[in-house]
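Incident log, support desk, overnight shift.

02:14 A customer reports that sequence design results differ from what the structure should imply. Their input is reproduced verbatim below. On-call engineer (initials T.W.) acknowledged and began investigating.
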């Protein structure tokens, strides 16, 4: 979508200055978006990866990155477990791989659906402060 939006803006800027702005802007945008989508689809159909090539292993695939990622996830889970009140259960529900809706989460936790957003915001703020303190504390001690 961002590429499509950028393409439409470029088409508008490519219009000759003498032509001025489109007389029916809504129609011009609609027609230009459709044309750009058709062009993008044609391009995507023609593009093919090179046969037999595999992406090179990047820094994210190295053992050090895997170990650091695992350590970060453990630190996050540990901090989430130390959160006060309903925060640990709420954040666990929000991170559930099944991607439950707010309605399902509210029913599971016995809360009103409208209170999930504000409580989530407070929980994330608390988690942010806890993690920031953990990051700053070791460097202050050293």
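02:41 Re-run completed on a clean worker. Output:
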């Amino acid at each position: 979508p961002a590429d499509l939006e950028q393409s439409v803006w470029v088409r508008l800027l490519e219009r000759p200055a003498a032509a001025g702005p489109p007389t029916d802007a809504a129609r011009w945008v609609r027609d230009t978006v459709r044309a750009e989508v058709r062009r993008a689809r044609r391009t995507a159909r023609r593009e093919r990866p090179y046969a037999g090539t595999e992406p090179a292993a990047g820094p994210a695939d190295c053992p050090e990155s895997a170990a650091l990622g695992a350590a970060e996830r453990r630190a996050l889970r540990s901090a989430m477990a130390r959160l006060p009140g309903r925060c640990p259960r709420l954040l666990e529900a929000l991170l559930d791989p099944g991607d439950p809706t707010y309605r399902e989460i509210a029913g599971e936790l016995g809360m009103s659906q409208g209170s999930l957003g504000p409580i989530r915001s407070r929980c994330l703020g608390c988690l942010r402060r806890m993690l920031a303190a953990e990051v700053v504390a070791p460097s202050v001690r050293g």
